[in-house]
Amino acid sequence: MVALAILRVEKLKSFGNIGGSEKHTARLQDTPNADTTKKNIRLIGMEDDSPLEVLVKNKIANTTLHKPRKDAVLCSDIFLSASPEYFRPDNPSNAGEWDNPRMLDFVKASRSWLVNNYGDKCVRAELHLDEATPHIHAYVVPINEKTKQLSHKEMFGGNGRAASIKLSKLQDSYAAALAPLGIERGVKGSKATHTKVKEYYQAVNSEPLTAIWSNKKLEPEPFESATNYVARIQNDHQFHVLNHQLADRAFMQERLESAEQRARASEKERQRLEEIVRSLELKTQQLRDLPLVDVAWELGLHNSQGKWKGHGHIINIDGPKFYDFAPDQQKGSGGAIDLVMHVNNCNLRQAVVWLHERFGEAGAERAAIAFSRQVAAEIIQLEPRDKFRLPVEDKSKWSSVSNYLTQKRGIPSNFVELLHKRGLVYADDQQNAVFVMRNLSEEPQAIGAFLRGTRGENNTFKGYEKGTVRREGWFHFRLGGQPTDPVEKVVLLKSPIDAVSFAMLEYQLRGDVPPNRTLYMAVDNPKSLPVEQLQNIPNVQVAFDSDDSGNAAARAVKELLPQSKRLKCKADDWNQQLLDYGQQLRQQQQQQRQQDDELSL
């Protein structure tokens, strides 16, 4: 039977909930189904033995910018495990036992996944080995990096379909991390959950469990006292197996009932939200910016011959706009706030307060929103756009950058010079290699630059030039076919150096340029992928790094471009594979020269 990855997320909305959860996971209270002879292990948070409540409070205080809402989820408990078939493939029903190397591989992969996905937001993780099947409880403080606020919804999803999608993607990610161990992702959708529960019950109700029930050793012996009987069976291994299996069965039954309750609650919540949406749509249709005629009336102006007069003003109102024809005014604008500021000769804050007093909070908000839209439109229309400027080229530094690319990175010198002549790579005054990022138009324009440090032995600097538009420009070049041929193959790579290295590997292995026009692109994040321009290209190869982040990015590209195919390098990255290949060639050439020398003798 195939081993499946298991991931569940529970909300902890109060510090009382957090304390109660810690009592269970840290074994601060008696746990009937736990084997006290086995010791649990803390995987994350070993250096700080403070109560979990304190860790969560400190993380919130040190990271968030605002006080948590009353209904905020303070901490998320992530349950990680795999089905028993993985831990004990020879006898899945033998609860409380496992293959130690398999268990350690599971722990290593799960811990790496937690660190890569949540970093220091994961304040603690406990490995439980004292129950039927090894599993992990990880406590994550769900902080939104952009808003610096608690947001379980942003990290794991709220209710309804959005939550299901986020949780499904989370399970995809975890299953991908465990895939090298032979652990698979369950079938997506609600039916998969029921299938796994049925499979679990089938395993629990298997012959070994029936055999334990019928084993005479678990029956009282003739004239045996109750005290002796309890002591004897508690020391019996089969009693512990039975105890663990029953505990597992109860645990899964509780999970199933909880899932069914959540499903019913989710349906009610969906219906409630749909009603709210319908109500909001109705209100939105009714809400308009405050009518200026109502504002003019509240300002004390009177309507005479189509004009609003008073306080030295003669104002014509045309929908959302007004114009003052008074001799000493001669001014026009739009919106309720501008009208109040003009007539009352006050500032913005005073105008908003005045509107609040006359039209209430809702009216003031509507006026403020309208004012913001107006200001934003004026800024967008009038503010000049700064065009991107490439870093200034320093030709005196090019030889150093070229040496870095050829000697340290193993890129053939003739190709480095070709890229340089095309203006795709050059040196700036800091001796950085400047890789020019362009759009994909017929006449590409430079709209960004990726910089790679080359000065010194261990220069790790890399980043983007200020002003780079990452969603509209990429480092790319074409090889093969004729310059006028349409692109038939695209290779997506993580960085410019990887793109060049991959192209050179293809060239060296083939011995010539690709027969068809091929586009090599550096795309460091699927968010910047030009889907519309690539969706009709039949051959798309995704050659990101072969690590967890690379695999996750490849899956994201697959969703956007279903025709894409995954390529994995044998080394850490494609540049390292190019270096390894070059070293192999040199060794072969050296061996050939030695053989030639021996033959000549």
UniProtKB/TrEMBL annotation:
<dbReference type="InterPro" id="IPR025054">
    <property type="entry name" value="DUF3991"/>
</dbReference>
<dbReference type="InterPro" id="IPR001668">
    <property type="entry name" value="Mob_Pre"/>
</dbReference>
<keyword id="KW-0175">Coiled coil</keyword>
<comment type="similarity">
    <text>Belongs to the plasmid mobilization pre family.</text>
</comment>
<feature type="domain" description="DUF3991">
    <location>
        <begin position="403"/>
        <end position="481"/>
    </location>
</feature>
<dbReference type="Pfam" id="PF13154">
    <property type="entry name" value="DUF3991"/>
</dbReference>
<dbReference type="Pfam" id="PF01076">
    <property type="entry name" value="Mob_Pre"/>
</dbReference>
<feature type="coiled-coil region">
    <location>
        <begin position="242"/>
        <end position="290"/>
    </location>
</feature>
<protein>
    <submittedName>
        <fullName>Plasmid recombination protein</fullName>
    </submittedName>
</protein>
